Amino acid sequence: MFTVVFAACLPAQQMEDVRSLRLKLSAGDLPSAESVLEVHRAAKGEDAEYLMGLAWLARGAALVGDWAAASTYAERASGLALAQLKTPADYESHREAVYALGTALEVKAQQMAASGQQAKALRFLEGSLKTYSVAPFGLRARLWKRWNQIGLVGTKAPAFVSEDALGAAMPALDEWRGQPVVLFFWAEWCGDCKAQAEDFRRVVGRYEPKGVHFAAPTRFYTADRAAEKKRVEEIWRSVYGPLPLVRVPFSDAAMLRYGASATPTFVLIDGKGTVRLYSPTRMTEERLSREIEKLLR
């Protein structure tokens, strides 16, 4: 998902320094990544790619637990981003700034949670959601994703309404109370989701007869909903399997509240309606099956 966002922000020829920086971060080499961005700044100034680089340095520093560096880069990224985001229209024309702002807010919350201040982190994210209530869907979904990573497990699964559905309508989650529920948040264009399709089909086939409910919420991404719904149904039937075994609702509310800025996202809910797993990542068949087995005990 991050690659998709990044690709949308900058032309391909402008990505090389951030690509290099990310490779350094993937190896846990924060100092070299910092050097890449320093050289870029000297040669090209604080351009859009520099802002993206700051965001990735903040994320990379958080990953290696260097919270002092993470805080510094998050603050710098936030400051530069907000200087470009003065009006609602700016959020559409400065997508790299939106990405950097989202990263900075996430890293700040991560830092609070890592220091044992989970409640403070959740309040910070809730305040940010109010501050950026009219920001693009992706930014708000990212904030909810981070909230969920910190605070969702162990709480009641948030209810949601659907605007439409493939096949049968999605019932309220409370109607499935007493039986486990697996939510698979996806998008028809998502390569990582399609890579999960075969494993997901097998898991559904194994556990749906045992009383586990499966739903695969998505949302409309275009204005032509009729054409998009037809395309989504074709993809679902050809890639994921028969509709009767899985409810497929279209729900902005679900995709937002469950923080599906990254797809796939898995949410496992026990028979009492409590969230037991929140994973905004791909999952192997073995791991997903193991987590479902816990719900059936």
Automatic annotation (TrEMBL):
Pfam annotation, one family: AhpC-TSA
Record-annotated Thioredoxin domain positions: 151-297
UniProt-listed PROSITE patterns: THIOREDOXIN_2 (PS51352)
GO molecular function, one term: oxidoreductase activity
Record Gene3D superfamilies: Glutaredoxin
InterPro entries reported for this sequence: AhpC/TSA, Thioredoxin-like_sf, Thioredoxin_domain, Thioredoxin_ResA/DsbE_sf
Protein name, entry field: TlpA family protein disulfide reductase
Organism, scientific name: Paludibaculum fermentans
